[in-house]
Amino acid sequence: MIAKTFQGLEEVLAEELTNLGANDIEIGHRMVRFTGDKRMLYRANFCLRTAIRILKPILRFTAHNADEVYEAVKSVEWEKYMDVKSTFAVDSVVFSETFHHSMFVAYKVKDAIADYFRDKTGERPNVRLNNPDMKLNIHIAENDCTLSLDASGESLHRRGYRQKTLEAPLNEVLAAGMILMTGWHGETDFIDPMCGSGTLPIEAALIARNIWPGVFGRHYDFEKWPDFDPELLDEVYNDDSEEREFQHHIYGYDLNVYAIEVANTNAKAASVTKDVTFTQQDIANFEQPEQPALMITNPPYGERISSPDILGLYHTLGERLKHAFVGNAAWIISYKEECFQEIGLKPTKKIPLYNGELECKFVQYEIFDGKYKEFRGDGEKLNKVEVIERPKLVRKPRRDELFRDKDKEPVVIENERFYGHEKFKEWEKREARKAEKLRLAAEAEQAEKTEKDAGDQKPKERRGGFKSDRKPGGFKGKGAGFKGKRDNGFKGKRDDNFKGKRDGGFKGKPKAKAESYPERKKRELKEKLMNNQ
Ligand SMILES: C[S@@+](CC[C@H](N)C(=O)[O-])C[C@H]1O[C@@H](n2cnc3c(N)ncnc32)[C@H](O)[C@@H]1O
User: Fold this and answer.
1) For the chain, which domains are there?
2) What is the per-residue pLDDT across 400-441, written as a single tens digit (0 to 9) for each?
3) What is the position in ligand 1's atom list of the atom closest to the CA of 305?
4) Mutation to probe ligand 1, out of 164, 167, 171, 254 (largest number of atoms < 8 A from CB)
5) Ligand 1 pocket check for 334: Cβ under 6 Å
6) pTM above 0.85?
7) C-alpha 317 – ligand 1 centre gap (Å)
8) Which candidate among 13, 79, 110, 349 keeps its CA 20 to 30 Å from the CA of 211?
9) 1 three-state secondary structure
């Protein structure tokens, strides 16, 4: 299996996997490979704090051109994973000289799956980008291709506790990764003096009490797979045997009173209000805490959040650390070198880390009092900065960057930018034709569905025994236990989502007679495309 993560978090993710009992752990670029059984697959989704998604590879092959990709994908026994009524989507990641565009590879995979079912049944499953029944991922590194099922669906950073948000919140996966990187698991108090919506304090509370991030009742795409085992998921969901007491306390502060309101709402939804206190306070008024504490904070960088005096803010932060955080360690994630300069303290560790697109640094400061020689027994060490080099941090250029022509304005196709390189001209035309074809097909399908719905008096047919067996009741036991134990926010959500999701997937499809509506649409589309050429 593959757990995907952000660049820089691979090692903490590998450590989390080791603690979960995964085997054959292998660190890669923004991902960690591992092996394990179905329980491990469910636990990886449910328990990992630093994974964005879990993929289950089903086919690995070598391909030298798009036709070979098509043939390999078509050779899979697709009935094992989906049926012709299933909707699906394909995500693609390509690092290759041979395959120039990831979207084209995704089209080939879609075609192969559609043709597989068409050859066997005369019908093709539909592509649906939003909430499909089956999400696939094709990864190509040069000629090495891996086709995987996406077990998570929605990104795992969406724990389900974030009710409200502010500008520039930290991603939950990144926040958890930063905390785990420091080695903190709840051994001291924890402070974030610029907490915004409270992501760091809330993730810290979950880590301190070892509450799995899956407990908030979100869904996973593996619940839609034919081999889904609801009892096993219930077992994983109900197992709180690894939770522990937290003997210390977590504090979040922010200048913005609304941030405090948002952070409190989120902490309530995460059921950690007992462990976390949020208070409005300017960093300028930060006082020496009574108990030993770890500070992790994410001040504004002046990028997404502007502040009238950003350097002044970092200066104040450095001054407060020096005078009011003696004997403790503070970690700061920021983007610009001049901000770190302004802190005016000697860092003890520097870790490169991406926050979204921004290449940031996560920097540690150990604040000693005047007698730090006695404290450490080795004053010299303080002058050495441990720079954690991560060779894998060198980002491979995306394909649009490889072919970038800096003098030209980019052409944007489906959020990807192309810079007018000749090599892409033909491709662009082809892709535009394909996109139009897909759009018309989707239109035809929608029209067909509307026609069918209007004429159909019969109740809709359920499909897939595994799905009808899966009832909200399966989760109810857990939800109910959970409700009593923590908070009542999750249960309703889980059941509601569940119902909507299930019902949405069962719609039957009309059988074609003579020249059916879709056939007519296809014929018209073909004629239209021929006329365009
Ligand atoms: C980048 S945001 C933090 C986002 C947060 N980590 C989250 O996940 O939502 C920076 C925060 O610093 C706060 N801030 C700015 N100046 C401050 C000051 N002088 N004292 C305390 N907080 C301040 C802002 O209000 C903002 O919420």
Assistant:
1) 2-150 (3.30.2130.30), 172-209+244-393 (3.40.50.150), 427-532 (no CATH)
2) 444 444 444 444 444 444 444 454 556 667 767 777 777 777
3) 1
4) 254
5) no
6) no
7) 12
8) 349
9) coil
